[in-house]
């Protein structure tokens, strides 16, 4: 059989998606004779936002052979232990979605079932008191993960906030200087297709240069140059489920708090993010243009800044959803070119990461066996839908009275989400679905945060009496208090570990 190995890959776009793809592909394919080229337009900027991540980003760092400290030093990074949701259940309330677990499971019964049993017997201690990262985050502390956690109480994870522009620059330098990625500055004006196969054959730059490749990776942002425009793959629009379609972003100087978490504050027509970095705070209001004007949204954001504004408002428009196929013929899209889900749980960068990993797991040769793209597209669609459901729960669960929130509560929910809500409300069950990005503790944190209480607890929780559980629970709280008392401040952690020299 003739060697049909892919010989060249062209990545279109030099934003977070393009440079993340360049680094991971060049690292994993380094022993193969595959030339990787990244084309970036000097005229078209990057989206310029995307500062919060989820813990999986640290796997990406490992995969490309860099340390957390290196990335953080290069990108003014801070720690993220989770997200605080302010005013979501109702104005004046707050709860936390941690990257961690609650309590200790026993006899294969999840901890929250025992907690529920105690609650039904009159113990009103919030679930959050049994979660170490929540307790540390609320005190602006950073825990050092134990090498070997003795039980679930010590199990937690953490992610990173970074300056997206600096992160992309760090990745670009590495890709060019260490990994041999060819960097072409130029604006793609057209893509030509092979008449017989319909595959993309080459792209033409506005200065007349032409670049050919076997495999094209579309990282061109919302334009979706190759997948959307050239190959005309349609977009599945979820605006009817997640109505926010715009954002205004604006960094400001630091106020008092360097929080080791993202803050999300519900607003009249959407929600506002606050992401602390070492050198500034990132802020943005994600809103529904049907419910508030651009000017009002910008004014709301500006009025709430904790420090001096460091830039003009950056107005962004988006459409929630994804391309019906993210891999078509010889083109795979990553990042905004593939789809977009609002940044409520910081899932865009992790979708880029899982997209690259999935491409590597289904890496084609020049025959492009359709089964590879089919499986890639099946998994990708599920991954987007699972995250969409998790985001929808955020809008559905609260009690706010404004029009946007009332409409979201009245939505006809996708059956996959309705099923999860029934399972939790009925018996406190947290089912796992194929290709879930968010695990049971994340779903639990939202249900508990919205004070949705199951009708009954697991009958197997009766293996312990309420009194026995009371004693054990007090020990857990004491152990968490001890761990918290040993943690250092977030500032200290950054100063000692990651400070920019
Ligand atoms: P872009 O950054 O838009 O880059 C596109 C690239 O394509 C650019 O280099 C451009 O020059 C190039 N290009 C375009 N057209 C051409 C052409 N014709 N020729 C050559 N090159 C071209 N994600 C998170 O994970 N966490 C967050 O907190 C988060 N917050 C967000 C907030 C908002 C309001 C928005 C809109 C997004 C947010 N995201 C977040 C998503 C995140 O910003 C993106 O997923 C990430 O930046 C990747 O963008 P990208 O590289 O796909 O596109």
UniProtKB/TrEMBL annotation:
EC assignment: 1.14.19.-
Gene3D superfamilies: FAD/NAD(P)-binding domain
Taxonomic lineage from the root: Bacteria, Pseudomonadati, Pseudomonadota, Alphaproteobacteria, Sphingomonadales
Record keywords: Oxidoreductase
Highest taxon of source: Bacteria
UniProt-recorded name of the protein: Tryptophan halogenase family protein
GO molecular function, one term: oxidoreductase activity
InterPro entries: FAD/NAD-bd_sf, Flavin-dep_Halogenase_NPB, Flavin_halogenase, Trp_halogen
The UniProt record lists the keyword Oxidoreductase: yes
């Amino acid at each position: 059989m003739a060697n049909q190995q892919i010989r060249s890959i062209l990545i279109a776009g030099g934003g977070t998606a393009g440079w993340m793809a360049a680094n991971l592909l060049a690292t994993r394919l380094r022993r193969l004779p595959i030339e990787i080229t990244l084309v970036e337009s000097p005229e078209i900027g990057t989206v310029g936002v995307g500062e919060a991540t989820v813990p999986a980003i640290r796997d990406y760092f490992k995969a490309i052979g860099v340390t957390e400290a290196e990335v953080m030093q290069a990108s003014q990074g801070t720690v993220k232990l989770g997200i605080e949701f302010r005013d979501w259940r109702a104005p004046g309330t707050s709860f936390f979605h941690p990257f961690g677990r609650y309590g200790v499971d026993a006899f294969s019964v999840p901890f929250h079932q025992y907690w529920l049993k105690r609650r039904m017997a009159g113990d009103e201690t919030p679930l959050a008191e049994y979660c170490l990262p929540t307790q540390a985050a609320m005190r602006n502390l950073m825990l050092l993960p134990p090498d070997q956690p003795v039980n679930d109480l010590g199990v937690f994870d953490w992610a990173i906030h970074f300056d997206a522009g600096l992160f992309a620059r760090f990745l670009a330098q590495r890709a060019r200087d260490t990994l041999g990625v060819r960097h072409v500055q130029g604006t793609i004006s057209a893509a030509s297709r092979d008449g017989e196969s319909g595959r993309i054959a080459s792209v033409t730059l506005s200065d007349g240069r032409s670049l050919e490749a076997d495999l094209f990776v579309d990282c061109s942002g919302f334009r979706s140059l190759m997948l959307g425009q050239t190959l005309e793959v349609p977009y599945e629009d979820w605006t009817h489920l997640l109505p926010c379609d715009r954002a205004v972003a604006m960094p400001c100087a630091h106020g008092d708090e360097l929080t080791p978490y993202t803050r999300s504050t519900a607003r009249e027509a959407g929600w506002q993010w606050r992401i602390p970095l070492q050198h500034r705070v990132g802020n943005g209001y994600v809103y529904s243009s049907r419910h508030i004007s651009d000017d009002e949204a910008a004014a709301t954001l500006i009025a709430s800044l904790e420090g001096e504004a460091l830039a003009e408002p950056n107005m962004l428009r988006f459409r929630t959803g994804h391309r019906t196929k993210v891999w078509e013929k010889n083109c795979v899209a990553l990042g905004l070119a593939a789809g977009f889900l609002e940044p409520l749980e910081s899932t865009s960068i992790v979708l880029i990461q899982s997209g690259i990993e999935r491409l590597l797991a289904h890496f084609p040769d020049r025959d492009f066996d359709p089964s590879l793209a089919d499986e890639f597209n099946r998994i990708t669609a599920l991954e987007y839908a699972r995250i969409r459901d998790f985001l929808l729960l955020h809008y559905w669960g609260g009690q706010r009275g404004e029009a946007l929130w009332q409409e979201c509560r009245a939505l006809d929910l996708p059956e996959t989400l309705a099923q999860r809500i029934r399972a939790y409300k009925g018996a406190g069950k947290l089912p796992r679905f194929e290709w879930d990005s968010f695990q049971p503790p994340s779903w639990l944190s939202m249900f508990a945060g919205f004070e949705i209480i199951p009708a009954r607890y697991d009958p197997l929780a009766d293996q312990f009496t309420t009194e026995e559980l009371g004693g054990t629970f007090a020990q857990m709280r004491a152990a968490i208090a001890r761990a918290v008392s040993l943690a250092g401040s977030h500032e200290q952690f950054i100063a000692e570990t990651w400070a920019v020299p």
